[in-house]
Amino acid sequence: MLSERRLEVLRAIVQDYVGTEEPVGSKALTERHKLGVSPATVRNDMAALEDEGFIAQPHTSAGRIPTDKGYRLFVDRLAGVKPLSSPERRAIQNFLDGAVDLDDVVGRTVRLLAQLTRQVAVVQYPSLTRSTVRHVELLALAPARLMLVLITDTGRVEQRLIDCQAPFGETSLADLRARLNSRVVGRRFTDVPQLVQDLPDSFEQDDRGTVSTVLSVLLETLVEETEERLMIGGTANLTRFGHDFPLTIRPVLEALEEHVVLLKLLGEAKDSGMTVRIGHENAHEGLASTSVVAVGYGSGDEAVAKMGVVGPTRMDYPGTMGAVRAVARYVGQILAES
Predict the structure, then answer these.
(1) How far apart are CA 198 and CA 191, in angstroms?
(2) SS3 of 127, please?
(3) CA atoms of 147 and 161, how far apart (whole Å)
(4) Tens digits of per-residue pLDDT, 267-299?
(5) Is 308 helix (H, G, I), strand (E, B) or coil?
(6) pLDDT at 14
(7) How large is the average pLDDT for residues 53-61?
(8) How far apart are CA 140 and CA 138, in angstroms?
(9) Phi-psi bin for 36: left (phi > 0), alpha (psi -120 to 50), beta?
(10) What interhelical angle do 102-117 and 86-97 show, nearest 10?
(11) Is 243 helix (H, G, I), strand (E, B) or coil?
(12) Which pTM was predicted?
């Protein structure tokens, strides 16, 4: 266990290195921070931190930089989440409140996160496997042609055209619409098949074929839309950190192009609370020089998707964690009110 003084020295090294981009020496630490000890004591503390793998000497200068292990300890023990200012919170609310639909919400969230953190932002669309049905609408386009509109609790809207075997009257259509909604509204997508399986039997013989066709299209929609989608933005921000990537930025960019990799990274985030993966904690080799800060968001207590940012390990962790958490809360409120 590190002493409180050595933890303070590590905190100072992380803060200075993130702010200055330069390796930190003992003289600079004693000048910039009120550590209450002599430079010689600070040098001894730095030597101990280096021996335990929390800091390293990148070259022959006297300065030290944090290692992945050092950043990990900083995040776990030393970094409080930096709250956003009132103007920042108002700006987030005003920007997100202007969204007109789910695609717009996700698009605005990506741009906002990238601007606030100056990192790469990644936002996963709400998962239909965790969604519930808000409403099912059935519209007659022609005597034997219908439109099915499925609306989720997260504001997602899916439309399908249905060609019926025979004309379906307005009275039957209204009846089907009412019975269908009475069974599925407020229920999880995964529960819908069992809830509607006996519905055709409750209709007249002549209408059962059309009812079965409608249910078939509904269930196909639930299945085919479960593929996870995400949006990414702010990749150009990485060019500001070229010196933070030892050899080249290319492996990072290639990893960011693989949505399967990003979905896996976000999937490691807990539904509630924040997950921070630092450097080599990221399983994908191309992201070994980056950190990922991610959190779940949703319209209620349960997360329906994840969002986060990817940037160099030399990251303002308190500020980044605060921004990601604040944006996730606002998006959750929008989904709850939509």
Answers:
(1) 14
(2) coil
(3) 5
(4) 776 666 788 999 888 888 888 888 999 998 876
(5) strand
(6) 93
(7) 83
(8) 7
(9) left
(10) 150
(11) helix
(12) 0.75
Report the alpha-carbon distance of residue 50 to residue 160 in Å, rounded: 62
Q: For residues 210 and 320, what is the distance between their CA atoms, to the nearest angstrom?
A: 53
Q: State what percent of residues in the chain have pLDDT above 70.
A: 92
Is residue 140 within 8 A of residue 146, CB to CB? The reply is: yes
Of 98, 102, 160, nearest to 127 (Cα)?
102
Q: In the block, which residue shows the tokens 């003992």?
A: 26
> What is the end-to-end Cα distance of the chain in Å, rounded?
49
- Residue 104: both structure tokens together: 């717009």
Neighbours of 50 (CB within 10 A): 15
Query: Quick one: DSSP state of residue 98?
Result: T
Distance between CA 154 and CA 133 in Å, rounded? 9
Residue 270 C-beta-side C-alpha neighbours within 13 Å: 7
Looking up tokens 């630092």, which residue turns up? 278
- Cα separation, 137 vs 209, in Å, equals 19
- Specify whether the backbone of 21 is left (phi greater than 0), alpha (psi in -120 to 50) or beta: left
Instruction: DSSP for 49-75, please give it.
Output: HHHTTSEE-SSSSS-BEE-HHHHHHII
